[in-house]
Amino acid sequence: MNYFETDIANLTKKIKKIEDNPDPTKLKSNKMRYELMLETRKAQLEAWRQGKPFGGGMGLLSQAMGFTPGSGFSGAGLGVVTGGRSQSNTAQKYFDACRDRGLPVDASCDMAMLPCGATESKDVPMAPFDLCDTASCTTMWLAGLYFMLRTETPFVYYLDIGFRQDEANLEHIMNQYSEFIELAEKIPGIKYDEDKLIELQTMSETAWGYYREIYQMLKNKPSPIGGKDAVQLYVAGSTLYPDPAKWVEFAKLRRDEVGERLDKGLAAVPGEKLRAVWAVTNPQFMDAYKVLAKWKIAVLVQYSGPTYRLVPMPKPDFMVGRELTPLEKEAAVKIRSLWAGTADTWIDNLIWTCRDLQADAIINYNMLGCGATLGLKKLLEDRAEKELGIPTLQLEGKQFDTAYANQETITAQLDDFAQMLLNMKGLA
Amino acid sequence: MEDRLKRLIEGNSEANRTKWALEWQKKGKKVIGIMDSYTPEEVISAAGMLPWRITGTWQGNVSKAIVYRSESSCGYCNHVLESYLNSDFDFLDGIIATDLDQDLLRMWEVMESLGRIPYYYAMHVPYVDSELNYRFMEEEIGRLISSLEDFGGVKITKESLRSSIDVYNKMRSLLSRVYELRKREIPPLSGAELLGITTTARVMPKDEFNNELEALLPYLEKRETNLKNVHPRLMISSEMLDNPAYMDLVEEGCLIAMDDMDTGSRYFVQNVDTTLEEPAYALAKRYISRHGAPRMGSWVNQADQLIKWVKEYNIDGLLVLPLTWCYLHSYRMPWLSPKLKEAGIPNILIGRDYHFSNVGQLRTRIGAFIEMLGTK
User: In principle, which of A75, A273, B271, B287 could form an S-S bond with A70, CB 3.0–4.6 Å?
Assistant: First the structure.
């Protein structure tokens, strides 16, 4: 089975499990989320069978130009990661495919490897067009370069993005977007439709608006959701659904459901004593949040590249006081990805988030191979201590690969940290 | 002349590398530390400041650095940070970095946050060779100019920039002439000696370096060496390889006839086009369009250049010797290696530490590759 077929099978099983034996402790809207993902995978599989053009790495521009999103380098990468929880075994297969090619799996970010492996395994379709950019990080850029050249993607636009969140960078991307659109429109059936982009952006902003309302609810003590339910708030929004209106509907339903939990006093972690922000990424081979939950510590947010969509952190200056054009809004998405910015940008916004949520601790997951974040761990820790008076646990590991740190190791470190934290606060 | 040559070769040794910088400062001028070959040194020189390439400690212990960084990350960054934390760079007036890769930028950000020296600056270098990117880098250079002017209380005019470009172009031409001599069956310099010269270029005032090299060229053209081996002929590809001990190790069994290194050929390859009207634009074009590091998107051109050099320098094999945690080469090599094999060029990637270590293991692996080349 290819990647989509595997995901369809897994998601179908999940949905059936919920229908047959709903777990009252889990959010009811999870079923709709799986249904959305299932529809997406079915649409992608059908598009692949019909030979429709996929376009990678373009965000909402994919659909605004007539591409099917979800393949090529960035699209497959995101798709694989968001579906990763349902495909941990598949991840190992993709890593092995990468190792066969000599790619640096063991020294690299898993997210950079998976799209390469998925394509090597012919589990995802090739995109005739890919937008390869540096918005994520150096590693993703390099993996993307390898991917484009290895697969001889017919049309590739390499989008250069600086590391500053400023007007100059915005203008730089906008200049390149003109070239990119001209190149993409060479593919039959592909045409940039600004009205379509505006429609998609409006729906996207509506959905994100509901997510941001949920974010505000997390500030309540105890928080009505936490752990995987809270973390997936930004992840779910990152996937491009074939029916964006349905995604808006889901976001509203989720908002209502979380609101209901709040009204009823239902807590993610009953008896919540402390709360934490989890940074960078997480070990997909375990539920690390449950480990903390047993100590009555709720993880409210996973702070990552796209977290700015969920958390109402201060906007960069270039966005203040003026209305961006539709294309500028897409350019701003690239710039605001926190991965490829400065350490200050990353830490400023993490501190802001922790302060806003009244977090008691940061769990900083130092992912092996993450050039974007490994070098700022001490800066982050020192500033968190100085500006918020909160400690940081420095974990090291990968997303799928347990060779570096396994469930037992991470659990032990989380347990020790939790105990220390509770003692520190006099809550042991 | 041999002693004069030796001084040039040993200019970046631990004992000597700060000599010119300290002399420069005695004249009341500033010294700016730089780390990669994408920082436009001409701009720094045009400000009357000395660009000085930072070499990290060659000792193995990086215990202070790994408080800030992962041990499982770029060795150059770890060793530079260790030196910084040991106050080895406290004499510098500033440090400028580019986003060559994020790890380097993050390391620079740690140094900036610790604030031991007066001035820090970071600039973006576009990844892609295109007109739009030349223009953007031209703007970046403009920002760097403004920053240096503010810091130094100086004015960097177009004329001073053009003069600086002329000096650097002369250096590039002189080093190109030296590298031409490597095409000989018995070159006048070993790979280790050449690395010594190119790294010395990075810590010496350029006028002085040019004068020395120009004076030495006639001697080099006639120099007889006692190279241990002249076959097989290898090309080395790496980043941040500044310790000649690695070159000596490789040359136990072969001759390093050419290199693809930021500390070697890539530092001086391709002059700035002085026919272009705007010097900042001309600089941008040169730095982006020249044969680049694997971080640049021009892998196809990079492969073509390597294949061209193999022919020009009569190379028997390519040894890629990156730092163990160097993403740049780790990602490019799986694509590059088959291309080179198609072109009939044996190649191998062997990781190394930044400081000279794991000698036995390296000797065995490199030796096996060299032996294989010898039996071809």
Answer: A75
Closest C-alpha among A65, A92, A62 to residue A80 = A92
Q: Is B15 on the interface with A (CB under 8 A)?
A: no
A71–chain B nearest CA distance, Å? 20
Nearest chain A residue to B325, by CA: A107
Residues B301, B38: Cα–Cα separation, whole Å: 18
CB–CB of A85/A285 below 8 Å? no
CB contact under 8 A, A107 and B330: yes
Whether chain A has a CB inside 8 Å of the CB on B132: the answer is yes
Burial class (CB in 10 A: 0-12, 13-18, 19+), A404: middle
Backbone angles phi, psi at A163, to 5 degrees: -95, 0
Q: What are the backbone dihedrals phi and psi of residue A162, each rounded to the nearest 5 degrees, phi first?
A: -75, 175
Furthest C-alpha separation in chain B? 61
Token pair for residue A329? Answer: 């809004």
B107 touches chain A (CB under 8 A): yes
**Which of A158, A342, A368 is the closest to B297 by Cβ?**
A158
Decide: pTM greater than 0.90: yes
Chain B residue numbers with beta carbons less than 8 Å from the beta carbon of A342 are 105, 109, 122
Other beta carbons within 10 Å of A166:
14
- Which strand (E) or helix (H) includes residue B107? helix B102-114
Chain B residue with minimal CA distance to A178?
B132
For residue range B352-363, what is the model confidence (pLDDT) as tens digits? 999 999 999 999
pLDDT of residue A108: 87
Specify the residue for token string 């429609």.
A199
Kindly write down the DSSP assignment for every residue of A125-152, as one continuous string. Answer: PPPSEEEEESSS-HHHHHHHHHHHHHHT
Compute the distance between CA of residue B5 and CA of residue B1 in angstroms, rounded to an integer: 6
Question: Which residue from B113, B127, B334 is facing A158, i.e. has the nearest CB?
Answer: B127
Burial B316-344 (b: 16+ CB within 10 A, else e): bbbbbbbbbbbbbbbbbbbbbbebbeeee
Under 8 Å between Cβ of B202 and B52: yes
pLDDT tens string A270-328: 999 999 999 999 998 999 999 999 999 999 999 998 899 999 999 999 999 889 999 99
pLDDT value at B190 more than 60: yes
Give the dihedral sign, CA B34/B39/B42/B46: negative
CB contact under 8 A, A175 and B72: no
Are B331 and B325 in contact by the 8 Å Cβ rule? The answer is no
Contact A378 B299 (CB under 8 A): no
- Amino acid, res. B75: G
- Residue A417 has φ and ψ, to the nearest 5°, of -65, -45
Put simply, the answer to whether B334 touches A101 (Cβ < 8 Å) is yes
Q: How far is B196 from chain A (nearest CA, A)?
A: 30
CB contact under 8 A, B102 and A137: yes
Measured in whole angstroms, how far is the alpha carbon of residue B64 from the centre of its chain?
25
C-beta atoms of A108 and B101 within 8 A: no
Per-residue model confidence as pLDDT tens digits over A368-411: 888 889 999 999 999 999 999 999 999 999 988 888 899 999 99
What tokens does B290 get?
């020249």
Own/partner pairs for B143-152, CB < 8 Å, 24+ apart? B144/B40, B144/B43, B144/B96, B145/B43, B145/B47, B145/B280, B147/B121, B148/B43, B148/B44, B148/B47, B148/B49, B148/B121, B149/B47, B151/B94, B151/B118, B151/B119, B152/B30, B152/B47, B152/B48, B152/B49
How near does any CA of chain A get to the CA of B335, in Å?
6
- Nearest partner of A141 among B294, B75, B209, judged by Cα: B294
DSSP string over A207-235: HHHHHHHHHHHTTSSS-S--HHHHHHHHH
Query: Do the chains contact at B334 and A103, CB–CB below 8 Å?
Result: yes
Which residues make beta-bridge pairs with B323?
B352
Distance, CA of A349 to CA of A380 (rounded, Å): 11
